[in-house]
Design brief:
globular, alpha/beta, 8 helices, six-stranded mixed beta sheet
């Protein structure tokens, strides 16, 4: 039920002419992947994806390679907004027992498989806004291991989301609607009490 409902939400915004940023954590990233892989390429060119704590390769790929294998991952990555060099960013930690890199083995590395330090090596920057709003209390740097949680307390992830939102807005056809009208973020997260698939309209500017 979750996959077709989320797919319907994406279809609704794309058909309305909006660009969509999907932000997904843990099991939410699996739901997002399943929903997006069955959409046509024409729709996917209006969608970008950010995942964190993602178990697609660490758990699902080993058990269901026909649905979550390298071929499916490469196929989706190449069809999203901006193609393989833009459309999907994944954040992972070595201390996470569930999520991990998606595009390559840790030793090989991939620029869009972004490893974040755990424990954090510096305090959270106050200059980078959190989107969505804070789901968890900030953790002190150098002291606590976050594992599978606290991803939105990572500057790298927050910077990426802010950058992707800017790209989504700037890529719009000039003169056709405002950024607030034409871009949305759909969140699929298991952290805190944040509601699944909540829509965030991006303010102008």
């Amino acid at each position: 039920r979750a996959v077709p409902e989320f797919q319907g939400r994406i279809n609704h915004h794309v058909q309305a002419g909006r660009r969509v940023l999907v932000s997904a954590h843990s099991q939410g990233s699996v739901i997002a992947f399943a929903a997006l892989t069955s959409l046509g390429k024409q729709k996917l060119t209006s969608v970008a994806l950010v995942t964190y704590g993602c178990p697609i390769t660490t758990l699902y790929g080993a058990l269901f390679p026909a649905y979550f294998g390298d071929t499916q991952i490469r196929g989706l990555r190449g069809k999203l907004l901006g193609g393989a060099e833009m459309g999907w960013w994944n954040f992972w930690r070595k201390t996470d027992p569930i999520g991990g890199p998606v595009f390559a083995a840790p030793a090989a590395g991939d620029a869009q498989d972004v490893k974040v330090d755990d424990p954090a090596t510096q305090p959270l920057s106050a200059d980078i806004p959190s989107t969505p709003s804070e789901l968890e209390d900030a953790r002190p740097a150098w002291l606590e291991v976050a594992g599978h949680s606290h991803f939105f307390n990572e500057d790298k992830l927050r910077s990426c989301v802010r950058y992707m939102k800017k790209r989504l807005g700037n890529d719009l056809t000039p003169g056709v609607g405002s950024r607030a009208e034409r871009t949305v973020t759909l969140d699929l997260t298991t952290e805190g009490q944040h509601p699944s698939a909540q829509v965030h309209r991006h303010p102008p500017g």
